[in-house]
Amino acid sequence: MNDISFDPRRIALEPDELAGRVIAITGPTSGIGRALALECARRGAEVLLLGRNVKKLEAVYDEIVALRRSDGSAVAEPLIAPLDLEKAVAGDYDAIATAIEKRWGRLDGLVHNAGLLGILSPIEHFDVPTWVKVMHVNVTAMFALTQVLLPALRASSDASVICTSSGVGRRGRAYWGAYSVSKFALEGFVQVLADELEKTSVRVNSVDPGRCRTPMRRQAYPSENPDTLPAPETIVDPFVALLGPRSRGVSGRAFSAQ
Ligand code: NAP
């Protein structure tokens, strides 16, 4: 049932909220994605780390295997899969679907978190190649990854797809150009896919993380004091709530993490 009163910020998470779930996260090497990958593992999920930089992926892998659950037990070992969303071709996406199929036979969560800011510039002067790159990474690659993983998501009895949005994807703002437009497209993607999957066990929602202390935020606001911003670790619980069993049936919605 699509409970319209559901708010992922109000869910008190259990230590084992994600026990037994298999969750893939793009962009787990930095900022929000890294914090979320660690939190998912801590709460019992097996995490698939999808990123473009193997060294950075291995560093997050090491952080995850060093974690302990709240009862002191070890967390599940994550899996690393290299994926550059700018350069990936069909075979790269297929390889990820095959790896998931082989290891788990299903996927319970998919978090589209990786994103590209590009440049801030008036539309009149916006660099066309940068526009194409941002739209490709933030929209087309997200679509392609979802498409190839839909059979694995459908194989789960309770699957959740989260697309990471932004305030400028819900209300346009001058100079945010391709980034803003790509997040509007992401919101549209969520609505279309949620409608198509209405009678299935796969839910699809967007989350605006809100302002957060990450490299992308620093790129957008170079003169801002980062100490005034919340750390990524403090804003990921609503993502976890949307990946866990309590959000079952909630789909096609646009949530905010703060
Ligand atoms: P971040 O720290 O800069 O992390 C961005 C992530 O995306 C990194 O893991 C990066 O990989 C990955 N990525 C970029 N291009 C990629 C590509 N071509 N292929 C694969 N991965 C790629 O940014 P963040 O702030 O955590 O952003 C996470 C999400 O939150 C984004 O979707 C962003 O739009 C959204 N968001 C953030 C804020 C905020 O205030 N921070 C506010 C609203 C929305 P590398 O580590 O290899 O570079």
Instruction: Give me the CATH superfamily.
Output: NAD(P)-binding Rossmann-like Domain
Which ligands are bound?
NADP nicotinamide-adenine-dinucleotide phosphate
CATH architecture: 3-Layer(aba) Sandwich
Alpha-carbon Rg, integer: 17 Å
Number of domains: 1
Could you state the order of secondary-structure elements as H and E? EHEHEHEHEHEHHE
Cα shape: globular
Helix content: 25-40%
**Could you tell me how far the N terminus lies from the C terminus, measured between alpha carbons in angstroms?**
24 Å
Biggest sheet features: 7 strands, parallel
Provide the structure class: alpha/beta
CATH class: Alpha Beta
DSSP strand tally: 7
- Output the number of helix runs: 7
Low-confidence stretches: none
Strand order of the largest sheet: 3-2-1-4-5-6-7
Beta-strand content estimate = 5-15%
The CATH topology comes to: Rossmann fold
**Global mean pLDDT:** 97
Description:
With 258 residues, this protein is of the alpha/beta class. It has helices at residues 31-42, 54-65, 90-103, 128-154, 177-196, 215-220, 237-243; strands at 22-26, 46-51, 79-82, 109-112, 159-164, 202-208, 254-256. Strands 3-2-1-4-5-6-7 form a seven-stranded parallel β-sheet, sandwiched between helices. Helix 1 links the parallel strand 1 (22-26) and strand 2 (46-51). Helix 3 packs parallel to helix 4 (128-154) and helix 4 (128-154) runs parallel beside helix 5. It binds NADP nicotinamide-adenine-dinucleotide phosphate.
